[in-house]
Design brief:
Chain C: This is Peptide/nickel transport system permease protein. The structure holds three protein chains of three kinds. Chain B contains eleven helices and no strands. By secondary structure, chain B is an all-alpha fold. Chain B has one domain: MetI-like (MetI-like fold, Orthogonal Bundle). In chain B, helix 3 packs antiparallel against helix 9, helix 4 runs antiparallel to helix 7 and helix 9 runs antiparallel to helix 11. The N terminus and C terminus of chain B are likely disordered. By secondary structure, chain C is mainly alpha-helical. In chain C, helix 19 runs antiparallel to helix 21. Chain C starts with a helix and ends with a helix. Classes of the chains: A alpha/beta, B mainly alpha, C mainly alpha. Chains B and C meet through helix 4, helix 5, helix 9, helix 10 and helix 11 of B and helix 1, helix 6, helix 7, helix 19 and helix 20 of C.
């Protein structure tokens, strides 16, 4: 991990923590092998004790519905979480699980047709009931966002410099030159060489990784408190993914922001986040410390996700254990637990009553499963998903 | 968003798999189209006009049910005023009835309903031939250019450019001036020879993007012959675009033919078309406006309903507005 | 970039050659110019046939005749080379001379129709895209479908018979009745209510304001005899200037930072002063003077924008320039209407013309002639532009909706930009790029429409010339038509390509 140059005015040295013990080294339970192989164990910031700082963002019972021709889509159903200063929160789920929609709701970026209920507060202030102008002044200044596909997320007809400067100018009046200087600084921070000439380039003259760096620069240019990163590496080459994640953590520490990292990639979560929220069919189904999610899984869906990670170096069984079936329709949700049709542990109880988030045996770890105890008892919960050939 | 009954990859052989997907896609399209209210109303009206015009004056040797003929000269009754009444008696009108000459008579006493129906019939026939033949040529040229690329494409597309720079109405008028004498059928063929350019460009574009798709490359890698790739893999995927474009070209053809006939370069006497009727009777406007109004109303009705049907089809094939991000 | 343009020019030339060749052959085969003479058995008919054969070069085989014709036509296109020779008509007129007059007439018609259609169409497209699925959107969509489905020739005759005659009858005794004012007021209220949008209270407020303003204005104007002798006067010019300054500032820069507004208002003020100060000059100016005054106005606007703009100098300059241009047009309209009474007398109250391009024997100075041209252009332009108007509004709407769904618009919103900035800088800039191509394409269609419009309104342009030529089996004027339309089509397609490459940086390299 490269340190930002110390003459950089953006660097806030209070948050530069010493590299601590790698959390992946503790506990030799079986999933480790699988997780480790899919992860770059490059992260030092997790060892810091910054977590537990001031509460920045609080989402309470957030629900989002979209009326469509075919019926009402229940995209998000009662999601709650809190984000503290310096923290990285991972939100994990398949596409369509509502993870992006919930963060777009926080940003106020959903289309007008969306019906939003619940509370979102930033530093104790209710975001959803704010007048639009105030809400707008939060966007990009206090809460910034990085999107999935850097190829389409930048306007092709404006230069990168203009697009960065615009983010500054929309919140602060200053000469364009000064805004461009800020843009240059930000580009330098995310590791783009010769930032001054790069300012005049158009997005199509950047490679995918470079564009995502520029997107990160755009997100940090106003020194925000919260960065929402929506699958920031999904569209990139594997080799670039690690660099981008590393850079993201680096700049976060430099400006002292908290991150909500949305991803479907458990490898990314393991390496970067302090806490994880797993989403399925618009609901949070398991929330806890990252380590607990991986090693003390209490929800079959999470176990299924863990079992789906390919491994190179496992000894006895290198077999994937995929979750069969597909996520339910968000228009016609099944009765009971939405995961029950795909769940190997499902009982009649599951098919009748949708479980709420129960406290589990691990403190601060909640799971929406009637049978979390059975997972607690199992050595390796992923084996519930063993295929038929494996069972015989 | 995924549907719960998604097709599992690798199920069944190739042809069967495509057939299954095509059917579900087709069902979706049909359902969306039938829900498009304006398109459905338009379809009903259009079919009504079609049936009315062909059944009332008859097709070829088959006589129609309407009592008057479009060539028979009669005595002018009541200055040729229309006898159609749609205001019911209790509202102070004459009650709902057709009367002897619902659309009135022209100055020679010819029944104007019969004349209008005959004009509608000819205009519709020309429109169908133009829409069908023009679209066929367009698909053929666009497909060949898009699939074979290279010299074929260069020549075909340059040829298309050449045709496009000539104002459609003018160049067709030059030929139709002669072809009109050979009857409406040949007039339609001539028009079709110049209306294919837009669709050819669209189809070429579709082919260019589709031929790079994985499923086409897979088929090519498997040694599937070119014509089979086109027929089985590419054409079904461009069907929506072609259908929409062909429908809209039908409306364009009605407008084009009537304009030609209005200028005197289209349908020639003794036959008639809606455009010719407007042209012939525009002088009688002040004294007998119905002679001018009726054919115009039918042109607008046909063009408008066909355009709405085309719009409904487009929405059905490309329901972009229903997308929800997740 | 240069190589790109050169390639396009060469390709364009090839297409033009092939196009004119095909047209030439088709025109040559379309009829025998001698057919009528041959049937005649007047004395001396042999001589006339021989004469015509020689004049039209009918003994030469068609391909060879084409080359000869091309040689003459080439001199028209290449400047400063010899004389332009497009052959002779069957009556022995020089076609290039015929064409020159016809071209000017058609150019006038098409330019006005295109500019009007683009401005209104794009505005309607943008508004309906921003107000998607409102009643306004549905009405505009329905109207555009109707416009596309209207046969121009039928609609043109209707315009002639109903609008022109009725309007002229009304102008004989122009009063607006109370119910008429109320109906127009309701329509205006509905439109503004939908455009403004927002919650029920805002819609109702804008409805009420628009209703009262429109209806009241109509009644007031009627009572004061304005319709009998319309005019604007310095007060209205001033009000328009200030409104333009405020409105354009709202679109271009917003009011968060006031310097742009101050610059725009200063420009409007300068315009008001100039209108009064230049009064003697504006009484009967030449077109050259007017053009110089326009340049002066733009220069002053740039200066004001530069001086007052401060941190938003760019926006201030462009806003000021637009305010200056709008004021210039308002002042022109104001002056033009000063000729109304005189013109009204001359044409006997039949102000809206239905035939030709000008009133014979009328000379009312610069303003009177301008008014004469405007009254003659009104109906043909209206008939001609409806289809284009519908096409532009539909296309702009679709393009805007597509762009508004793009990721980069979401990114722009996530940066905290105001809705205005997102729409103007991101959505509009990208959404209007494809519209430029459409304008180029549509021009060819417009010329086709001009063939009909000119025939109906007796507008002696190229379309009129073409139809006459075809009716008389007169090949050379018909070919002149194809030559001009071909050049226009090729030229504008090329311009569209270049404009596209200029507006979309992704294409610049390729």
């Amino acid at each position: 991990m490269t340190k930002p140059s110390s003459d950089d005015p953006f660097v806030d040295h209070r948050s530069m923590g010493a590299a601590g013990s790698d959390p992946l080294d503790v506990g030799a339970a079986e999933p480790t092998e699988q997780v480790k192989s899919a992860t770059q164990a490059h992260v030092g910031h997790l060892g810091r004790s910054a977590v537990g700082g001031e509460e920045l963002l609080r989402v309470d019972d957030l629900s989002v519905e979209f009326p469509t021709d075919d019926g009402v889509v229940h995209a998000v159903r009662g999601v709650s979480y809190a984000l503290h200063a310096g923290e990285v929160l991972g939100i994990v789920g398949e596409s369509g699980s509502g993870k992006s929609v919930s963060s777009m709701a926080v940003m106020g970026l959903l289309p007008r047709s969306a019906r939003i209920s619940g509370d979102v507060s930033f530093r104790g202030e209710d975001v959803l009931s704010m007048p639009p102008a105030v809400q707008r002044s939060l966007r990009g200044r206090k809460i910034a966002m990085i999107f999935q596909d850097p190829m389409t997320a930048m306007n092709p007809v404006h230069t990168v410099g203009d697009q960065l400067a615009e983010a500054v100018l929309s919140h602060e009046l200053m000469p364009r030159k000064k805004a461009l200087a800020r843009a240059e600084e930000a580009l330098g921070m995310v590791g783009i060489p010769q930032p001054k000439t790069r300012l005049r380039n158009y997005p199509h003259e950047f490679s995918g990784g470079m564009r995502q760096r520029a997107m990160i620069a755009m997100a940090i240019i106003n020194d925000p408190d919260v960065i929402i990163a929506d699958e920031p590496t999904t569209a990139l080459d594997v080799t670039v993914q690690a660099q981008i994640l590393e850079k993201l953590v680096e700049v976060k520490d430099a400006i002292g922001a908290a991150i909500v990292l949305i991803t479907h990639d458990l490898g990314v979560v393991a390496g970067m986040t302090h806490r994880v929220l797993v989403m399925y069919a618009g609901r949070a189904v398991e929330v806890g410390e990252t380590d607990d999610i991986f090693y003390r899984t209490r929800m079959p869906y999470t176990a299924g996700l863990l079992g789906s990670i390919p491994s190179l170096d496992s000894d006895d069984d290198g077999r994937l254990r995929p979750i069969h079936g597909t996520p339910p329709s968000l228009i016609h949700l099944p009765a009971g637990c939405p995961f029950s049709p795909r769940c190997p542990l499902a009982t009649d109880l599951c098919r009748q009553t949708e479980p709420e988030l129960f406290d589990t045996d691990v403190t601060g770890h909640v799971a929406a499963c009637h049978h979390w105890r059975r997972l607690a008892e199992a050595d390796d919960p992923t084996t519930f998903f063993r295929s038929e050939s494996e069972a015989s | 968003m995924s549907t719960p009954d998604q097709q599992r990859p690798g199920a069944g052989d190739e042809d069967q798999g495509i057939a299954v997907v095509a059917r579900t896609q087709g069902q979706l399209v049909r359902r969306r189209f039938f829900r498009h209210r304006l398109a459905m109303i338009s379809l009903v009206v259009f079919v009504a006009i079609l049936v009315l015009s062909f059944s009332s004056t008859g097709i070829g040797p088959i006589p129609g049910w309407w009592k008057h003929d479009y060539t028979t000269i009669g005595t002018v009754v009541d200055g040729g005023r229309p006898t159609l009444s749609v205001v019911p008696g209790f509202l102070g009108g004459d009650g709902i009835h057709l009367g002897e000459h619902p659309f009135g008579q022209d100055n020679k006493g010819i029944d104007y309903f019969a004349l209008t129906m005959r004009g509608t019939q000819i205009s519709l026939m020309i429109a169908f031939i133009v829409g069908g033949l023009g679209s066929f040529i367009g698909v053929l040229i666009g497909a060949a250019a898009g699939f074979f690329r290279g010299w074929t494409e260069t020549i075909l597309m340059r040829f298309t450019d050449v045709i496009i720079i000539m104002p459609l109405l003018a160049i067709v008028a030059v030929i139709a001036n002669q072809a009109g004498n050979a009857g409406p059928f040949w007039l339609a063929v001539v028009i079709a020879l110049f209306t294919w350019t837009g669709l050819a460009r669209i189809v070429r574009g579709e082919f260019l993007s589709l031929r790079e798709k994985e499923f086409v490359e897979a088929a090519r890698a498997a040694g599937t012959p070119a014509w089979r790739i086109i027929r089985k893999h590419i054409l079904p995927n461009t069907l929506g675009v072609i259908l929409v474009s062909a429908t809209l070209s039908l409306a364009g053809a009605v407008i084009l033919e009537t304009a030609l006939s209005f200028l005197g370069f289209g349908v020639k006497p003794p036959d008639t078309s809606l455009g010719r009727l407007v042209s012939v009777y525009q002088g009688a406007f002040v004294t007998r406006p119905w002679l001018f109004i009726w054919p115009g109303v039918f042109i607008v009705a046909i063009a408008l309903t066909v355009n709405f049907i085309g719009d409904g089809l487009r929405d059905a094939f490309d329901p972009r507005q229903n997308k929800v991000r997740s | 970039m240069l190589a790109f343009i050169v390639r396009r020019v060469i390709a364009a030339f090839g297409i033009l050659l092939a196009g004119t060749f095909i047209a030439y052959v088709l025109v040559a085969l379309s009829g025998d110019p001698l057919a009528q003479l041959r049937q005649s058995n007047e004395p001396g008919i042999e001589d006339r046939i021989a004469n015509m054969t020689e004049r039209l070069d009918l003994d030469t085989p068609v391909p060879l005749r084409y080359l000869k014709w091309l040689g003459g036509a080439a001199q028209c296109v290449v400047p400063f080379v010899g004389t332009c020779d497009l052959g002779q008509s069957v009556r022995g007129q020089d076609v290039s001379a015929l064409l020159a007059d016809a071209m000017v007439a058609t150019l006038q018609l098409i330019t006005v129709a295109t500019v009007t259609a683009v401005i209104i169409g794009v505005l309607v497209g943008i508004v309906t895209a921003l107000r998607q699925y409102t009643r306004l959107d549905y009405s505009a969509t329905f109207a555009s479908f109707v416009f596309v489905s209207l046969p121009i020739f039928w609609f043109a005759v209707l315009l002639k018979q109903y609008i022109a005659i009725d309007l002229n009858d009304w102008l004989a005794d122009p009063t607006v009745s109370l119910p008429a004012a109320a109906i127009v007021g309701v329509i205006s209220g509905l439109i503004w209510g939908s455009i403004v949008g927002g919650d029920r209270r805002r819609v109702l407020t804008s409805f009420a304001v628009a209703f009262v303003a429109t209806g009241g204005a109509l009644l007031l104007l009627s009572a004061s005899g304005w319709f009998r002798s319309p005019g604007l006067g310095p007060v209205v010019v001033g009000v328009v200037g200030v409104a333009a300054a405020v409105g354009l500032t709202a679109v271009v820069a917003g009011f968060r930072y006031r310097n742009v507004l101050y610059a725009a208002l200063a420009t409007a003020g300068a315009g008001i002063v100039a209108n009064l100060a230049f009064d003697p000059l504006l009484t009967d100016p030449t077109w050259g003077t007017l053009f110089l005054l326009l340049l002066l106005a733009v220069a002053v606007a740039v200066g004001i924008g530069y001086a007052i703009g401060g941190l938003q100098r760019r926006q201030a300059i462009s806003t000021s320039v637009w305010v200056a241009v709008i004021m210039a047009f308002t002042i022109t309209a104001d002056r033009m209407l000063t000729a109304w009474d005189n013109y009204y007398e001359f044409v006997g109250g039949r102000v809206v013309a239905t035939f030709g391009a000008r009133t014979p024997n009328y000379d009312g100075g610069t303003w009177g002639n301008l008014l004469d041209t405007v009254t003659h252009l009104a109906l043909p332009t209206l008939a001609l532009m409806l289809v284009s108007l519908a096409t532009y509004s539909r296309y702009t709407r679709a393009s805007m909706l597509e762009v508004m769904n793009q990721d980069y618009v979401r990114t722009a919103r996530s940066k905290g930009l105001t809705d205005r900035t997102v729409i103007v800088r991101h959505a509009l800039r990208n959404g209007l790029i494809p519209v430029t191509t459409l304008v180029a394409f549509d021009l060819a269609g417009l010329i086709g429409g001009a063939v009909i419009t000119e025939t109906v309104f007796g507008w002696q342009g190229m379309g009129f010339m073409f139809v006459e030529a075809l009716r008389n089996t007169d090949p050379n004027p018909a070919m002149a038509f194809f030559l001009v339309t071909g050049i226009v089509a090729v030229l504008f397609n090329m311009l569209a390509d270049i404009a596209y490459a200029y507006l979309d940086p992704r294409i610049r390299l390729g």
